[in-house]
Design brief:
The complex is a heterodimer. Chain A is α/β, with parallel strands linked by helices. Chain A has helices at 61-68, 91-98, 116-126, 131-144, 160-172, 190-207, 218-224, 242-247, 252-262, 268-277, 293-303, 334-346; strands at 14-25, 35-46, 50-54, 76-81, 84-85, 101-105, 178-182, 210-215, 227-232, 235-241, 281-286, 307-318, 321-331, 351-353. Chain B is elongated and about 70 Å long. The chains are: A alpha/beta, B mainly alpha. Chain B: Belongs to the binding-protein-dependent transport system permease family.
């Protein structure tokens, strides 16, 4: 594999770099308004990592990934892949760079006129690899994705998951160092999605291929990516480790996206129901990745003689670390509850009061 | 019937001429039409080799020539024929005109069938680093082959039809034979036998086309 090796402990090598990239599509027709797809995108993707890009549909994800292999060219800014500045290259040179970048698609985009083996062989033919070597590599790739016995079938006879595995084998044919996955599992059922993601993790771990995953499915990012960028209306609103972005989103847009994925915050309707059955103050605490976090929480409640009942929430695992939030119904003397909240906050705990009362009264319950 | 038997050698020669006209026209017109169709497809705005000027020029040329009825086209291009093949009558002249006429019809059929190919497949080929010309030849044509064969079969039938019309201009072939030895002598058996022969040729062509298309589509 043509993977750039790096010494252990060395700082990660940048594989893809965006510098203030913008992309505007001209309007359709003479009077159509131009469409701004991406604005001022700057990001770095390290060699060997799995980098996720999430966002709602229309956020510009597909455009962004196509800038990496030069299928689209930016209207402003620069895109670097390895040592190449794609924006400075001719189309001919970009084609050379593309051979070091594999791509898989939501609808698989297999050639119907070719067999499974023919599909995998195509990029090798393009690259001018000769027959015996080509056949050897195709067999090895099909073996890698577990479809050696289907080599002579045509794609329409395969299931969705099998088609995507052929797509992956085809994308890896020229032994690229970078793989782009554009909504690669969005057309698959959950079980097949799991299989394809497991294969992608294997591609990353065993072959050292850098993977960029575009998706609107947070579960895909959660189970596969190391780092993630959140794209909202053509802008990059947040970039960080999957754990940080999911457990502690810093921006409203990222919070909205992650909130819908984790579903660990009560919805307004749930809150209204909770308020009918619970008389205390509803407070949501974000779970932290710290030894004895819950114990300290309980001790704080006890110290201030505040009764705390968990009424909503949950804890799950993300990148082998706990993540989630718990909503408590806190009852006790008003000053005591305030003291608890102050104590938690001074301890660095994220506390959200689920109490936007119509007319907040600071003296309430005193 | 007796008179038909005496004309048997002429009938055989007529069949030979029809085959000559039709095969040359379908092959030469087919190749030229394929090239024109590829140009129309590739240069269309937003496509692989988008080129507004070339697209408009070829598009207008095809639109102007295609609606001209063949018998009129045949006379209209006589000056061109004189320059290129040195004659305006006979089998060669008819074949030349028919090849051109078929090419323009085929260009549209090729263009339409290429347009139905999933753009995602083209994107996959681009992502693999393929050149535009390579994508046209190794992805688009194979992907559109089945319907394209049916389109060529349709043109084959039309060419047989037009080759018979060309008989009016002394072009030779079965149309010429039916007119000269049949209807002009009120010898109806000759006309019917000729018609039956044309029907058999068309049926055989259609059968072959369907069979090839089915193989290409693997249905």
């Amino acid at each position: 594999m043509s993977v750039g090796t790096q010494a252990a402990g060395a700082p990660p090598q940048v594989h893809v770099r965006f510098e203030h990239v913008g992309k505007t599509f001209p309007g359709k027709g003479r009077r159509g308004a131009p469409l701004v797809a991406l604005e001022d995108i700057s990001l770095e993707i390290s060699r060997g990592e799995v980098f996720g890009i999430i966002g709602y549909s229309g956020a510009g994800k597909s455009t962004l990934v196509r800038l990496i292999n030069g299928l689209e060219t930016p209207t402003s800014g620069r895109v670097h892949v390895g040592p190449h500045d794609l924006t400075a290259l001719s189309e001919r040179d970009r084609r050379e760079v593309r051979r070091d970048i594999g791509m898989i698609f939501q609808q698989f985009n297999l050639f119907r006129s070719r067999t499974v083996a023919g599909n995998v062989a195509y990029p090798l033919k393009v690259a001018g690899v000769r027959r015996p070597e080509r056949d050897r590599r195709v067999a090895r790739l099909l073996d890698f994705v577990g479809l050696l016995d289907r080599a002579h079938d045509h794609p329409e006879r395969l299931s969705g998951g099998q088609k995507q595995r052929v797509g992956i084998a085809r994308a890896l044919a020229t032994e690229p160092s970078l793989l782009l996955a554009d909504e690669a599992t969005s057309a698959l059922d959950p079980e097949t999605t799991g299989e394809v993601l497991a294969l992608l993790r294997r591609v990353n771990r065993d072959l050292g291929v850098t993977i960029v995953i575009i998706t609107h499915e947070l579960d895909v990012i959660r189970s596969t990516a190391d780092r993630v960028a959140v794209l909202d209306a053509g802008r990059l609103v947040e970039t960080g480790s999957v754990y940080d972005v999911f457990a502690r989103p810093r921006t409203e847009a990222a919070g909205r996206f992650v909130g819908t994925a984790l579903r660990d915050r009560p919805s307004p309707a749930t809150l209204a129901r909770l308020r009918r059955t619970h008389s205390g103050r509803l407070v949501t605490v974000r779970v932290r990745d710290q030894q004895g976090f819950q114990t300290r929480l309980a001790r704080t409640f006890l110290d201030h003689q505040v009764a705390a009942e968990i009424v909503f929430g949950g804890i799950s695992e993300l990148q082998e670390r706990p993540v989630g939030s718990l909503t408590f119904d806190l009852t006790g003397p008003g000053a005591a509850v305030d003291a608890v909240l102050a104590a938690l906050r001074s301890d660095g705990v994220d506390v959200i009061e689920e109490n936007p009362d119509p007319e907040p009264d600071p003296q309430e319950g005193a | 019937m007796h008179e038909f038997v005496t004309n048997l050698p002429v009938y055989r020669e007529a069949i030979r001429q029809t085959f000559f006209i039709v095969i040359i026209s379908v092959v030469a017109g087919g190749l030229l039409g394929l090239a024109l169709g590829l140009v129309l497809y590739a240069t269309r705005p937003g496509n692989l080799m988008a080129n507004r000027a070339v697209f408009l020029a070829v598009n207008v040329l095809v639109n102007v020539i295609r609606p001209i009825p063949f018998v009129i086209f045949l006379t209209a291009i006589q000056p061109v024929m004189l320059h290129t093949i040195g004659t305006t009558i006979g089998t060669n002249a008819v074949t030349f005109a028919l090849s051109l006429s078929a090419a323009f019809a085929i260009s549209r059929i090729v263009e339409q069938n290429l347009l139905t190919v999933d753009p995602g497949v083209i994107e996959a080929a681009r992502a693999a680093g393929a050149r535009p010309v390579g994508i046209l030849l190794t992805v688009l044509i194979p992907e559109a082959l089945g319907p394209m064969i049916l389109g060529y079969t349709f043109i084959f039938v039309a060419v047989v039809d037009m080759s018979a019309q060309a008989g009016l201009f002394g072009g030779g072939g079965l149309g010429d034979f039916a007119i000269t030895y049949g209807s002009q002598r009120y010898n109806w058996p000759v006309v019917y036998i000729t018609v039956a022969t044309i029907v058999v040729i068309v049926q055989a062509g259609q059968f072959l086309g369907n069979w090839l298309a089915r193989r290409a589509l693997r249905r």
